[in-house]
Amino acid sequence: MKAAVLHTLGDRPRYAEVPEPAPGDGQVVVDVTACPLTNLDRVLAAGTHFASPSALPAVCGSLAAGRLPGGARVLFRSPDGAMAERALTRPELCTPIPDGVDDDAAAAIQNPGVSTWAALEWRARMRPGEHVLVLGATGVAGQIAVQLARHLGAGRVVGAGRNPRVLAALPGMGADATIRVDQRDEALGAAFRAEADTAGFDVVIDFLWGRPTEVLLGALGRADMELRSLRTRLVQVGAMAGGQVTLSAEVLRSSGVEICGFGTGNAPPPAELARLRDGVLALLAGGILGIGLHRVPLAEVAEVWNADERGVRTVLIP
């Protein structure tokens, strides 16, 4: 069978022939119908993640949609690689796909949907009526964050990002205002202050870090920012704009900003993740959540591996 096979860390996987999967005790073979290409997949293949494969060659991907031997449609995880025509999994690693939801959309939305919902609810403790700023709102997860914040009852949602096409679409997803982050620092800081106004931001979901976050923190820490909101819970989720920020101690003392991270080291317990996953799929089935897709044949995996997705999620179709 064919699969996306990584031969060297730091290189792109290639479409290549591999042996058919042989199930062991408690395992089943799934016919794969859709496999999302995620940032985690890229980092693992680059060799910069603690879980990067140590034995090569290796089949890439860990999450996909497919059909069980009896025909049931499921989302599943495969420790042996999911970017293939067929993959191994266990029944306990499978989740039914609701009627009315396409396999490719279900596969694409699970990771960004669950992680974003957990960041809002589990880490930020967002409450109805609060004001939410999404940094990196034009990315796949950022767009979902805007939609979920609105669904969870945010009183005001502001989306900040770079892609003008997606920024223009954010109001239709629930954003009350948008900010372009690719402007000069002074103008960007002024835009943050204008949208914060006197109420401030109760919650910031940050997919960017780097310079945009520095500018935001500097804006919130200015002496002339008299905010009614004394607490701004900034949840650091991604670092698309850089892995470092320069943070003045004065900002933390003068702004009421509280910074925490969200990732594999502080994720909710499995039962909570399962609840969020089921919730994401239900919202997708109900048309409340949506995700832009770029469907690509698995045979073209090398060509699209490093492509700029520009606000849509690439889904590989075997």
From TrEMBL:
<dbReference type="Pfam" id="PF00107">
    <property type="entry name" value="ADH_zinc_N"/>
</dbReference>
<dbReference type="InterPro" id="IPR020843">
    <property type="entry name" value="ER"/>
</dbReference>
<dbReference type="GO" id="GO:0016491">
    <property type="term" value="F:oxidoreductase activity"/>
</dbReference>
<dbReference type="InterPro" id="IPR036291">
    <property type="entry name" value="NAD(P)-bd_dom_sf"/>
</dbReference>
<dbReference type="InterPro" id="IPR051397">
    <property type="entry name" value="Zn-ADH-like_protein"/>
</dbReference>
<dbReference type="InterPro" id="IPR013149">
    <property type="entry name" value="ADH-like_C"/>
</dbReference>
<protein>
    <submittedName>
        <fullName>NADPH2:quinone reductase</fullName>
    </submittedName>
</protein>
<dbReference type="InterPro" id="IPR011032">
    <property type="entry name" value="GroES-like_sf"/>
</dbReference>
